Amino acid sequence: MAILLSTKAHTMQDWKAALLAVDPSLEIRLFPDAGNPDEIEAAVVWTAHDMMELRRYPNLKLIVSMGAGVDHLLRSPGPPPGIPVARLKDVLLTSAMAEWVLLNVLRFHRQDPEYRALQQRKEWLELSAPSTAERRVGILGIGELGSASARVLTSLGFPVMGWSRSAKTLPGVQNFHGAEGLVAMAGQSDILICLLPLTPQTRGVLNARLLSALPRGAYVINGARGGHMVAEDMLAALDSGHIAGAALDVFEPEPLPAESRFWSHPKVFLTPHAASITIPASVAPQVVENIHNMRAGRSLINLVDFSLGY
Which of 171, 202, 248, 310 has its CA 20 to 30 A from that of 3? Predict the structure, then answer.
């Protein structure tokens, strides 16, 4: 039996090498060269893979997403019915996201856009020094990624708030939940960070209503999914000056079309879905563990709860 591997062409061999380093006995086939469909027992895939394609493999018993998010696998038609889906939980993924969040919080907090503008004009001007204690940060989503970012920010003295769909408690963080809590937290957030999983309930959460609830001059950071942001609402808020700047790593669609205004908007700092990139060697052991568990009939790790969407 064989493992089907499907991801970006330039990383395919890295993934294969990482999996074989953990278990050299694995037979790994690189999509689209799947060989006999009857021999595929597990598929390790990323965003571009067509879920309908996986219905070609009658003996498929496991699907593994190559990242922490799985919204790309849950879009219609979704995975083949009855096939378990696992996602990745990795300390390097988590720390990389916390680094990217910190980079952009400090970018805005330490007035880097203003200083770069002064540099372009060759103006030697010292701006008033900001205080971390007065820069309130709100985080949408206080799961693994949000919690790690919150810990980094609180360690630097930022007052941090966190929002979740249902009530949660995170030490050192002021917690909000539910629809009312969402608007209440936004109203106190000088910097709003989105690290939510993308579900039908969270799609479009960065919309005109929420953006208008932020204090004028606030900043927005989105490292979650492009589907969380209503693009025209964000652009309108930036154009009006209500939002002073945005750091955006994710968009819908991706790659971002060349004609998108985000590319050239003076208040936007853009990265190409690169805030936190999976390192194959780091996550290969848990992928192989799940393959072994599947073959032995043992419980699988990091399974997706389809009722929650993550």
Answer: 310
pLDDT given at position 75? 79
Q: What type of residue sits at position 29?
A: R
Catalytic residue from among 72, 165, 242, 273 = 273
Q: How many alpha carbons lie under 13 Å from residue 275 in its C-beta half-sphere? A: 30
Please name which of 234, 129, 149 lies closest in space to residue 196, comparing C-alpha atoms: 149
The whole-angstrom separation of Cα 86 and Cα 65 is 6
| Residues 156-215 pLDDT 10s | 999 999 999 999 999 999 999 999 999 999 999 999 999 999 999 999 999 999 999 999
What pLDDT does residue 50 have?
Answer: 85
Predicted pLDDT at 69: 80
Phi, psi for residue 141 in degrees, rounded to 5: 100, 105
- Collect the ranges in the chain with pLDDT lower than 70: none
In DSSP terms, which residues pair with 40 in a beta bridge? 2
Rounded Cα distance, 22 and 287, in Å: 10
Which candidate in 225, 261, 292, 295 is catalytic? 225
Whole-number pLDDT of residue 258: 98
Q: Round to whole Å and give the CA distance between 184 and 271.
A: 29
- 15 φ/ψ angles, rounded to the nearest 5 degrees: -65, -45
55 annotated active-site: no
Contact in structure between 197 and 71 (CB atoms under 8 Å): yes
Contacts of 247 (CB under 8 A, 6+ apart): 104, 107, 108, 219, 220, 221, 222, 268, 269, 271
Catalytic: 49?
Answer: no
